[in-house]
């Protein structure tokens, strides 16, 4: 069996399952941001179709669809707008750049692994091959961390307020039996617009200004 | 002495349950009051039921990289410290106007007369600094009653073998609506010979003083209240204080130290505003109410000519005898498949409160526990928190700790969220004060304004666990009687960071206490502390009602002093 490239990273990566915590410098983050689709902050219009997707989103989309496939009784990744949710999240203020870095790294390893075992990109594999590969990846610590992060984001897309881009019209709440509480937030009241989150955002901008040049 | 023409009569630092009553009463009495609050001013219109904002991220507490604590715990025989920015174990509890009272669940208890004389009643315990309070229940009772109408407490007075005396026959408001699960709890308790009591709540069942009544969203604890029904210091007191025209609130103002003059009196508070610019404000009297840990930290950081070891700390008592709530928590599931469709529908009700507690063992007279009467505690029942993200994320692991996904994961999430009701219980018993639970300043870690952060040594007394286990077994018997499945509970010495008190004991001896009976610093005549810091022992209930009551009491002392 081919050894998963995820296992090589086992000792060097540590991810907090709740948030995903890494160290990464700002320069590296800016390089990574350059690879993101050019959408402004607060954009809601993320309707990219798989054929128009570039990496890492092409692979992420394929993984999400494998983890939450369309089925008769359950919600598929597309139905909860999982990809759009994650793309929006990575452009929100205060997003931890290390999370995006980890996402990209994982996609790299995933495709290395797909290439070495099947001479194909992950997205081009059959459903059975994808499943087997993900099962293998989950056996390494880094792979488990990476899949755990993708799963957490799928769950956020399933159950967070629709104002964040997933769970359209509360479809996830209905399917899982959740009764939301009222009042619900509007777009202007998302967490990064309020209280300490807003303050943190202002503080970071201030620091950036004062350290420029 | 002091400053000529100070900016304000009274400067209150911290706007939670300890600060609100002082600000309101002083403003009502016509004094110029300034409240400095480190956090933002969030109001009813900002409080939405959004798990992403309250919990997955927090709009209510600082980023731990900017402001944190250092936590010291015992591993084997060694005390090891770790900054909370590394562990993620936050000791912030809602830094905003109104403080963490915005986020409480509002179950409200008075202490009992014996809590004021714990040492006389039950004797000393080796390794614990148990003392009697310098005031009695009778002295605080009028203020407990005052809180019922000023903050708005709903409930129903009931006869019980350990009921505390009341000077008014019944509560200010009738109880809030009750969840159908209370019928099951009441039946089980009756079968067991326990007396289930109705838990009072600082939540309005009827509109009052411009506040709306509870709208029963079901999202109460950890969330700000959108209707104003929850008796936060902001909704119940500060909004009224501001309306007098005599009280000003400066939010986003981080007080870094209190400046004292050569006579030892406090003359000014130094703070950083929203733009991180340093500011100063002068007043005749300063009232510190930043919640136990931060109050001790502020005093320790406020070194002056007469206070070389920190304000009010000439006898080394500031930060000592920090208290939390001891006890534990447990739960049991009531799967809907076990019951009729109608019963399941009732249990799925979202909104009304459980409002049930047991105080049958507030004092334990049981040879199986000890050979003499002992202090016990309170068992509170509550429904599983309605938050789903945290609940769903914990479902992604199977019984062997392996990740699952696809239909299996969604099935598991649906079953966890929609397949059953879960009844939780919480046990509250005394956190015995010891020499190993205190606040000091960390010698290295600073906040982003370059002030040393608080270091918390978190030792506990083994006796606390013994009481917690005794009460948890009683609570477990109720869940069993109800036919609950998957019953589990845990009791540990790990403190609940949202239930803190102590650190600035009030007392009559300057050698062993920081504050006098009026909660004025023994060695600083114009400094008062009005949050939970004053408590020498904590009692076996949540603290908020007692903090409110004492702050109303001290407010009258401050008016006398002015």
What is shown here, in short?
The complex is a heterodimer of chains A (213) and B (562). Chain A has 213 residues and is mostly helical.
Structural class, from secondary structure content of chain A?
A: mainly alpha
Q: What's the overall average pLDDT of chain A, rounded?
A: 81
Q: Provide the low-confidence segments of chain A as ranges.
A: 8-49
Biggest interface and residues each: A-B, 51 and 54 residues
- The secondary structure category of chain B is alpha+beta
Report the total helices of chain B: 13
**Rounded Rg of chain A:** 18 Å
* Alpha carbon gap, first and last residue of chain A: 52 Å
Distance between the termini of chain B: 14 Å
Proportion in helices of chain A? 40-55%
Portion of residues within helices of chain B: 10-25%
Instruction: Give the overall shape of chain B, derived from the CA principal axes.
Output: globular
Shape of chain A: globular
Please count the beta strands of chain A (DSSP E, at least 2 residues each): 0
The beta-strand count of chain B equals 21
Radius of gyration of chain B, whole Å: 23 Å
Organism (chain A): Thiomicrorhabdus marina
Protein name (chain A): Gluconate 2-dehydrogenase subunit 3 family protein
InterPro entries (chain A): Gluconate_2DH_su3
Protein name (chain B): GMC family oxidoreductase
